[in-house]
Structure to design on (256 residues):
């Protein structure tokens, strides 16, 4: 896919990994809609990025919100999206049953599943519907690419991560069947499973915890940089033979 003709929706695009993706895609010549629950932050980023960016205040779990963001892409840039990147997510830390005998709150578990799994699927299904309306690329024949964000927690879930790990495992699990579903439409699906990254969530972590996390990464022994994640998103979108796969981006770390 050529970035000069690409139109991308980035869900959760106002901060962290999503903001890095939006910035990189714009640098490569794509036109981008930054969609985020935090509409003010999405507006600020779109303003920073200039005329090839637009913003939408959108809840990834809402059909109406995501559809409106996809409409905005077409109205602003003149064609349906050719790429959809989901980075919106949430987490909740609790054991299935605590040492005091308190079970994991069901509403918290449901919220994590709803945002991370239902939200990602909602963006993917609605974006794919728009992508199928595009003319196939003259060189590759493809119409679009969907990139989802899982986590190494999908494979190496730690104690207290039962909700988060389940949600990210579900994203990994939907990757291949969705790729198979969309293959006849010339739409690809790729999932990235990032490790420990420098995001707003990590910014408030105590120094001792950050040092411990960095030391656990074989090489390089540091937190991931959001632009490194964005670089893999760029490659996933541009490489027409990458499909139905989940790629770990983690410096070789395996959580214990």
């Amino acid at each position: 896919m050529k970035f000069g003709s690409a139109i991308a929706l980035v869900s959760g695009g106002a901060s962290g990994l999503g903001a890095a993706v939006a910035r990189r895609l714009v640098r490569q010549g794509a036109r981008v809609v930054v969609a985020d629950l935090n509409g003010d932050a999405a507006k600020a980023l779109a303003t920073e990025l200039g005329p090839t960016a637009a913003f939408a205040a959108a809840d990834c779990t809402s059909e109406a919100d995501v559809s409106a963001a996809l409409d905005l892409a077409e109205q602003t840039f003149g064609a349906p999206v050719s790429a959809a990147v989901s980075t919106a997510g949430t987490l909740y830390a609790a054991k299935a049953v605590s040492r005091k005998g308190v079970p994991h709150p069901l509403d918290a578990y449901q919220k994590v599943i709803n945002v991370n799994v239902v939200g990602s699927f909602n963006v993917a299904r609605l974006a794919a519907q728009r992508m199928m309306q595009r003319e196939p690329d003259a060189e590759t024949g493809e119409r679009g690419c969907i990139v989802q964000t899982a986590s190494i927690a999908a494979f190496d879930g730690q104690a207290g991560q039962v909700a988060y790990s389940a949600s990210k495992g579900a994203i990994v699990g939907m990757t291949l069947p969705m790729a198979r579903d969309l293959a006849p439409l010339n739409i690809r699906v790729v999932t990235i499973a990032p490790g420990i990254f420098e995001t707003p969530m990590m910014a408030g972590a105590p120094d001792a915890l950050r040092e411990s996390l960095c030391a656990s990464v074989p090489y390089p022994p540091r937190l991931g940089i959001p632009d490194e994640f964005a670089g893999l998103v760029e490659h996933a979108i541009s490489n027409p033979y990458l499909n139905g796969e989940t790629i770990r981006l983690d410096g070789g770390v395996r959580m214990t």
